[in-house]
Amino acid sequence: MRYLFLVALLLSCGSPTKSNLDIYYGKPTYEQFFTSIGDGSYYWCGGTLIERQWVLTAKHCVNNWEDLKVKIGSQMKNDWNGGWKHEVLSVKQIIRHSSWDLALLKLSEESDMIPIRSYGSLDVPDQTMLHTYGFGRTEDGSYPNELLTVGVRYQKDNGKNFIKPEREFSAGHEKFDSCGGDSGGPIIHRPRQKLLGVVSWGIGCGKADEGYPGVYSKIDVEWIRRELEK
């Protein structure tokens, strides 16, 4: 999940050495808090329902867009969604963080889906297993039709990535990773159902064992609270 963007429609974000990331070695899953972000006919990024009327995603996913829709409870790419409960709602307002790779999407109405239980600062020990989600590219180069999740370990030592530790962290585990198309999606501590970050960028996919784990934006809790209270 590294600057997961419209690979087919837009130029990739960041420097030429950074690639869009997808879920490597993931397994099918379903979560009501997971959202797909796009124009209603094509969805290019992920996000997380954090409140009934609010979705958190990566800023680079929405930098060039104003008219957006979100599919909440995405389990399949198609409109039928595999029979799983879901909603498609319009975005009323986009609020972009001034410096972090974060954006808030205010929905046109409250969702009936269940938001993530909590969100907050990164407060886990090194090598803690976290889970990330997305429709991004897989290890065989294809893009899945169903939502995948994979376990990745928080890396206190971010390896060869040049991250900004005040607002980013790394996570990966051997070949397990996020990849192109996963941008904006959640990385959570599953036992607590707590959102700890947003898929942001990376150098290659599945290269944690080479010193290049995926990079995730931390959650700016104070910024979120200020915007939600306005």
> How do the helices and strands follow one another from N- to C-terminus?
EEEEEEEEEEEEEEEEH
Q: Which blocks of ≥5 consecutive residues have pLDDT under 50?
A: 1-22
Average pLDDT across residues?
87
> Order of strands side by side in the largest beta sheet?
10-11-12-16-15-14
> What Rg, in angstroms, do the CA atoms define?
16 Å
The outline comes out as: globular
Structure class? mainly beta
| Number of distinct beta strands | 16
What does the oligomeric state look like here?
single chain
Strand content: 35-45%
**How far do the termini sit from each other?**
31 Å
Report what the structure shows.
A hairpin with a 6-residue loop joins strand 7 (87-96) and strand 8 (103-107). The chain has one helix at residues 221-229, and strands at residues 21-24, 27-28, 34-38, 43-51, 54-57, 69-72, 87-96, 103-107, 118-119, 129-134, 148-155, 168-172, 177-179, 186-189, 194-201, 214-218. It contains 1 helix and 16 strands. The model is unreliable at 1-22 (pLDDT under 50). It has 230 residues and is mostly beta strands. A 6-stranded antiparallel barrel has the order 10-11-12-16-15-14. A 6-stranded antiparallel β-barrel has the order 3-4-5-8-7-6. Strands 1-13 form a two-stranded antiparallel ribbon. It is globular. It starts with 20 loop residues before the first strand and ends with a helix.
